[in-house]
Amino acid sequence: LTERMSQAFKNLTGQGKLTEKNMNDMLKEVRMSLLEADVNYTVVKDFIARVKEKALGEEVLSALNPGQMVVKIVHEEITELLGSEEVEVHYKKSGITTLMMVGLQGTGKTTASAKIANLMKKKQGRRPLLVACDVVRPAAIEQLQTLGESIDVEVFTLGVETKALETARQAMRYAQENGYDTVLFDTAGRLHIDEELMAELSDIKALIQPDEILLTVDAMTGQDIVNVAQSFHDQLSVTGLVLTKLDGDSRGGGILSVRSITHVPVMFVGLGEKIDDLDVFHPSRMADRILGMGDMLTLIEQAQEKMDMEASQKSAQRMMKGSFTLNDMLVQFQQIKKMGSLGGMMKLIPGFGKMASQIDDARAEGTMKKSEAILLSMTDYERENPACLKASRKNRIAKGSGTSVADVNRMLAQYEKMQQMMKMMGGMGGKMPNMAAMK
Ligand code: GDP
Ligand code: MG
C-alpha cells in the first residue's frame, strides 16, 4: 500500500494477529456459553475447532482486543451456520403444493400447521387445506379443527377410525375436487422416535410426495435433539425447519445442532401460542441469542462503526485538500455501498436534495458496482497515480474486471469530475459533511 492508504488503514489493523495463545481464554468462554445454550456437545467441539483454524493468524482490528476479535469471528460463523438466506416455501408452478409437518410430540406441529396455513391464506393468497393425519388421539383432531375454524381454513379429517395414510390419500382427492392449491398435513408425533411412527411417516411421504417436509424443533430442546433430527432426516429427508417456542427464555442452541446435521433452512419461527405468532428467521439475531454475549457484541459493533467513521473521515479530509485519488474514490464507494442507496444518502447533503431526486438508484448502483470492480482490478500504484493508465494497462484492467476499455474510460472521466467537484467544495471551506457521520 502507498503511504496515504496505509495511513488510513493503520487504524483498522496493526494490533497484531490472533494466536493460539491470545485466543484460548475467549474460546473457552465461548465453548461454555454455547453449552449453556444447549448446543450439542459434539457440535460445539467441531465448531470451536473450525473457528480456531479459521481465526488463527487473522489481523486483530484496532479498537478491539484479541478476545473481542475472537467473539466477532465466532458470531459471524454462528450466523453463517444458521443460514444467511431467507427461504420461502417452494410452491409448485401448477398443481397442488403439499407440506408435511413432522416432529416429536408437543414440539408444535399442529400449532405451526395452522399458523402457516393462515399466513399462506392471508399474505400469499393461497387456498390451503389442513389435513388431520394425527389420528392417535381424538383431542389432536379437535385441536386442529378448532384452529382451522379460527382462521377460516377447512380441516379434512376422517376421524380416529381411519388410518393416517388413508386419510392422506382421500385428502388429496378432496383437495383436487375442491380446488385447493396447498395442502398441509399435520402428522402424529411420539415422545421419542420409534419405528412405527417413522414407517407411517415414510408411507405418507411416499404417497403425497410433499414439496416440503418441515421438522418442528422446540427452542427449549436439549442435547438429545441431535439424535432426533438425525433420524427424522435420515428417514424422511427433511426440507426445512420450524423453530417453535422461541418466545420462551431458552437460548435455543438446539437449532444450531439441528442445522449442522440437516443443513436445511429454518423457514419459520414460532413466537407464541397465538395464530399470528409466526415470524421469519433472523440468523444474526439468533446468533446473538445463542452466543449470549450481548454486551460484548454491542461493544464490537460500536467499535466497528467508529472505525468505519474514522476511515471515511480521513478520506473526506484528504479530498477537501484536493488530493483525491482513485483509492479515495474506492473508499467512498465502499462507504456508500454500506449505507444503502446513493440517492437516499445525497438527500442528506445540503444543496444536493434536487440532484438526489434525479438519481435513478438502480442505475446509479449498477454503474457504481462496475466502477468498483474496475477500481479493484487496478494495482495500488495505479489507483494512486491515475496518470499512468495507458492503453495496455486499461486493457488488462478491463479484462480483470469483466468490463470494457470504454467502461474504464467512463470511470476515469467520472473520477475527474469528482475530483474537480471536491476541489471546488474544498475551496468553499470544506463544508461538505462527512459521509459516515450522517448515518
Ligand atoms: P404437536 O404435538 O407437535 O402438534 O404440538 P402442538 O402444536 O399441539 O403444541 C404443543 C403445545 O405447545 C401447545 O400447548 C401449544 O399451544 C404450544 N406451542 C406451540 N407453538 C408454540 C410457540 O411458538 N410458543 C409457545 N409459547 N407455545 C407454543
Ligand atoms: Mg399435534
Automatic annotation (TrEMBL):
<dbReference type="InterPro" id="IPR036891">
    <property type="entry name" value="Signal_recog_part_SRP54_M_sf"/>
</dbReference>
<keyword id="KW-0963">Cytoplasm</keyword>
<dbReference type="InterPro" id="IPR022941">
    <property type="entry name" value="SRP54"/>
</dbReference>
<dbReference type="InterPro" id="IPR003593">
    <property type="entry name" value="AAA+_ATPase"/>
</dbReference>
<dbReference type="InterPro" id="IPR013822">
    <property type="entry name" value="Signal_recog_particl_SRP54_hlx"/>
</dbReference>
<protein>
    <recommendedName>
        <fullName>Signal recognition particle protein</fullName>
        <ecNumber>3.6.5.4</ecNumber>
    </recommendedName>
</protein>
<dbReference type="InterPro" id="IPR027417">
    <property type="entry name" value="P-loop_NTPase"/>
</dbReference>
<dbReference type="InterPro" id="IPR004780">
    <property type="entry name" value="SRP"/>
</dbReference>
<dbReference type="InterPro" id="IPR042101">
    <property type="entry name" value="SRP54_N_sf"/>
</dbReference>
<comment type="subunit">
    <text>Part of the signal recognition particle protein translocation system, which is composed of SRP and FtsY.</text>
</comment>
<comment type="similarity">
    <text>Belongs to the GTP-binding SRP family. SRP54 subfamily.</text>
</comment>
<keyword id="KW-0687">Ribonucleoprotein</keyword>
<dbReference type="Pfam" id="PF00448">
    <property type="entry name" value="SRP54"/>
</dbReference>
<dbReference type="Pfam" id="PF02978">
    <property type="entry name" value="SRP_SPB"/>
</dbReference>
<keyword id="KW-0547">Nucleotide-binding</keyword>
<feature type="binding site">
    <location>
        <begin position="244"/>
        <end position="247"/>
    </location>
    <ligand>
        <name>GTP</name>
    </ligand>
</feature>
<comment type="function">
    <text>Involved in targeting and insertion of nascent membrane proteins into the cytoplasmic membrane. Binds to the hydrophobic signal sequence of the ribosome-nascent chain (RNC) as it emerges from the ribosomes. The SRP-RNC complex is then targeted to the cytoplasmic membrane where it interacts with the SRP receptor FtsY.</text>
</comment>
<feature type="domain" description="SRP54-type proteins GTP-binding">
    <location>
        <begin position="265"/>
        <end position="278"/>
    </location>
</feature>
<feature type="binding site">
    <location>
        <begin position="103"/>
        <end position="110"/>
    </location>
    <ligand>
        <name>GTP</name>
    </ligand>
</feature>
<dbReference type="InterPro" id="IPR004125">
    <property type="entry name" value="Signal_recog_particle_SRP54_M"/>
</dbReference>
<dbReference type="Pfam" id="PF02881">
    <property type="entry name" value="SRP54_N"/>
</dbReference>
<keyword id="KW-0378">Hydrolase</keyword>
<keyword id="KW-0342">GTP-binding</keyword>
<keyword id="KW-0694">RNA-binding</keyword>
<dbReference type="InterPro" id="IPR000897">
    <property type="entry name" value="SRP54_GTPase_dom"/>
</dbReference>
<keyword id="KW-0733">Signal recognition particle</keyword>
<feature type="binding site">
    <location>
        <begin position="186"/>
        <end position="190"/>
    </location>
    <ligand>
        <name>GTP</name>
    </ligand>
</feature>
